[in-house]
Amino acid sequence: MAIETVGVVGAGQMGNGIAHVFAAAGYDVLLTDISEEALERALEVIAANLGRQVSRGKIGEEDRNAALSRIATTPKLTDLGRTDLVIEAATERETIKQAIFEDLVPHLKPETILTSNTSSISITRLASRTDRPEKFMGFHFMNPVPVMQLVELIRGIATDDATYSALKEVVENLGKTAASAEDFPAFIVNRILMPMINEAVYTLYEGVGSVSSIDSAMKLGTNHPMGPLELADFIGLDTCLAIMNVLHDGLADTKYRPCPLLTKYVEAGWLGRKTERGFYDYRGEVPVPTR
Ligand code: CAA
Fold first, then answer.
1. In terms of pTM, does the model score above 0.85?
2. Please, which residues have CB within 8 angstroms of residue 58's CB and are 6 or more apart in sequence?
3. Domain locations in the chain?
4. Are 5-181 and 190-289 in the same CATH fold?
């Protein structure tokens, strides 16, 4: 089946980036969120990010307008029933994702491919709660979606070859590169990235280095574009903690225990850039370390 229309569930930082790249690649996108305000904000963010690509000469003005005209929004999840491919990009909590699939599945066409942008939750388990485990896959984009080249493709135990091939082709149409991962906790990127971030938080917790020295060490010493604490703020500390818990529970190995300092930041509601405070305070002109 040809994929022409794409439904995106969740208009947060991942959902708006996913809508952006699909619209820019010529797909018709229907974006939904429980918050109408989030939908309005997402359209503004997408317009600004497309504008950034115009001003850097990556795309033309007419490409930007065409992409924007291909994105429609709806507050009704069930409207996505008419799309050919659905990408769930809601909050990284299993109960929320399952509730979305339960509400949406009865409205889907039989041939629609259902995917989740989950960064760590079992694809096989999510798929088993739907009517189409063979047409269900993990479809994991990286943040910022318009810039990052990689998409992780994760097959559940029941995913069929046709679904995998269809998504591989979609990734090529987006001009991105796929890496296939088996369905084990946090797949490839986060299995490796999150323990590094967690170790950076331990390094801070134990007083080995300050926020600035840890980030400078990794930026200048290993050529990472962002230091691990700056990257944690960018991803969201709640997401980092949720992924560490998935690794810890799913692999039952104490080496994945989340750092108590990471938990403390999340308990404080200091979740990183999205709440203007995390390992850095973003409320002023320049980010200031909070420790
Ligand atoms: N939309 C469109 N373009 C964007 C953008 C966005 N949201 N954000 C940045 N850009 C573009 C800029 O316009 C700029 O374009 P040019 O190269 O054409 O000039 C380019 O990206 C670089 O941006 P900036 O100059 O503003 O800033 P920078 O050089 O500091 O780069 C960055 C910003 C790309 C975010 C870089 O710091 C980076 O690569 N950081 C690491 C990101 C990373 O590791 N992401 C993965 C996180 S893990 C994940 O996502 C998985 C998960 O499940 C948690």
1. yes
2. none
3. 5-181, 190-289
4. no
Burial (Cβ within 10 Å: 0-12, 13-18, ≥19) of residue 220: exposed
For 226, which DSSP code? S
Residues found in the chain: 291
Closest CA to 244 of 229, 263, 216: 263
And the tokens for 161?
A: 């070859």
Q: 190-289 adopts what CATH topology?
A: N-(1-d-carboxylethyl)-l-norvaline Dehydrogenase; domain 2 (1.10.1040)
Question: Would you please indicate which residues are annotated as catalytic (active-site) residues?
Answer: 119, 140, 152, 190
What are the tens digits of pLDDT across the range 175-192? 999 999 999 999 999 999
Ligand 1 neighbours by CB, cut-off 6 Å: 49, 52-53, 56, 58, 119, 142-144, 146-148, 189-190, 193, 225-226, 231, 235, 239
Class of domain 5-181: alpha beta
